[in-house]
Amino acid sequence: MAEPIWSQFIHPETILEQVRNTVPFLRLGAVEPGPLIGMGETPVGYLRVLGSAQAVETLDDYFALCCSAHQATVATFVPTDVDSKIRGVLWNQTRDPEILGRMAAFTLQMKGWTTEGISTRVTVDPQWGPVSGHNGEWFSVASGGLGRYLQLGWEDPFTGPIAEELEREAQAFGNALRTPGRELETLQLAVSITHNLGDLDQGIGYWEGAAKQSEAKRRFSRLAHENKTPFGGIFGHVANLYRECLSAEGHRHYPLRGVKALRRSPVLLLPLGPFFDDWGEVIGGSPLLDDAERSEVLDALLRGCKKIDNQLGYFRALAGWQQSHGRSFERAVEGLPASGKKLLREPELRKKISIPRRSFESSYVKRVEALRAKLR
User: Fold this and answer.
1) What is the mean pLDDT of residues 244-248?
2) pLDDT category, 142, cuts 50, 70, 90?
3) CA 105 vs CA 51, 53, 102, 200, 206: distances in Å
4) What residues does each domain of the chain span?
5) What pLDDT, on the 0 to 100 scale, is given for residue 359?
6) From CA 155, how far away is CA 137, in angstroms rounded?
7) At a CB cut-off of 8 Å and minimum separation 6, what does 309 contact?
8) SS3 readout for 91-127
9) How wide is the angle at C-alpha 148 spanned by C-alphas 144 and 152, nearest 5°?
10) Cβ neighbours of residue 78 under 8 Å, at least 6 residues apart?
11) pLDDT value of residue 1
């Protein structure tokens, strides 16, 4: 009897346990056993796939499970480590047109999955809809599939949807940029879109053979790195805005990964940095956390302030917490270890925490206003 495909990789139950560990609030009830491909058709199709993880045997089912685990966790504090599999490794395991066809169909279903309850890093444009890092994760999977189809010389189902998604995100950014009062949204879009273009490049990085010399590679690769004109040239402005204002906030938040209390509810998920004032207010006032857990969060934020050069988001979380829930902040300070209390006494840290929110955000607003004036 042939071994199941996952015997070469991570056991499905291990993947499922990783999901349960990082998003324990998700309901992953089991569904009727059977092929996982086809279960992803609803906006929460990833939950149906995860709920049937015990049925995984084939390559396409394992692909569906990895995609679903990634969907559930990629915007949380501890994402599952399946990126390389869904971007390239699993695509390159077969040349069977039926299996690849099912994987491609599943990938196109993923595009319609909701991020509700699993991400607070979403910016909604009233005309062009939500944009988030999940769109980039879809780019990486779809571009991995595109490369495999191009390598095999087959007509692909991905070129059109990838181009349409790039156009949608370009339009969402342009719409926000042109609209006074939406400066912070413009910046949040710059964060998501720049990362999304990087994810697209990650998928392209797995391309082999004819795909590496294709028109698709010239069209879709390095959109955030080179002065390219497709999509109105808007991605160059997106990337420049990100590099000049926000690149220091693009770290992986390792200081917060060990704080298990933050995994308790989607309410506690981290938004897009550096605008963490509201999140700090949530930490200070949420009944989901007790004083000891708040001390643990505070200690992690302080260590992050010290360890991660040039980031400002953690300072804003501390500012939002202290300014909205002063007594909660004081109790958390009381529970800090000596090292944390020492960090909190540093003059430079105290100075950054004391900056009013309006003053902090105004410099970012001015940068967007300057770009808006330049492009008129």
Assistant:
1) 95
2) very high
3) 20, 19, 5, 19, 20
4) 1-120, 254-359
5) 97
6) 23
7) 248
8) HHHCCCHHHHHHHHHHHHHHCCCCCCCCCCCEEEECC
9) 170
10) 18, 21, 22, 257, 263
11) 47
Q: Where are the beta strands (DSSP E) in the chain?
A: 122-125, 129-132
Q: Which residues of 129-147 are buried (b: 16+ CB within 10 A; e: fewer)?
A: ebbbbbbbbbbbbbbbbbb
Establish whether the linkage from the previous residue to 4 is cis, with ω within 30° of 0. Answer: no
Report CA 353 to chain centroid distance, whole Å.
Answer: 27
Residue 253 contacts residue 77 (beta carbons within 8 Å): yes
**Axis-axis angle for helices 357-374, 313-324 (nearest 10):** 130
Query: Residue 260 belongs to what H/E stretch?
Result: none
> In this predicted model, what pLDDT tens digit does every residue of 171-207 receive, in sequence order?
999 999 999 999 999 999 999 999 999 999 999 999 9
The contacts of residue 341 (CB under 8 Å, 6+ apart) are 333
Tokens 């994810």 found at:
199
Closest CA to 270 of 126, 122, 168: 122
DSSP reduced 3-state for 130? strand
Model confidence, pTM: 0.95
Mean pLDDT score across all residues of the chain: 94
Find the range with the poorest average confidence among 8-17, 49-58, 88-97, 245-254: 49-58
Contact call for residues 135 and 165 (beta carbons, < 8 A): yes
Euclidean distance between CA atoms 262 and 264, whole angstroms: 5
CB-based contact 324:366 (threshold 8 Å): no
Determine the pLDDT at residue 216.
96
User: Do 70 and 18 meet the contact criterion of CB atoms below 8 Å apart?
Assistant: no
Determine the Cα–Cα distance for residues 40 and 161; give it in Å rounded to an integer. Answer: 18
Which residue do the tokens 């204002």 mark? 245
pLDDT for 341 equals 97
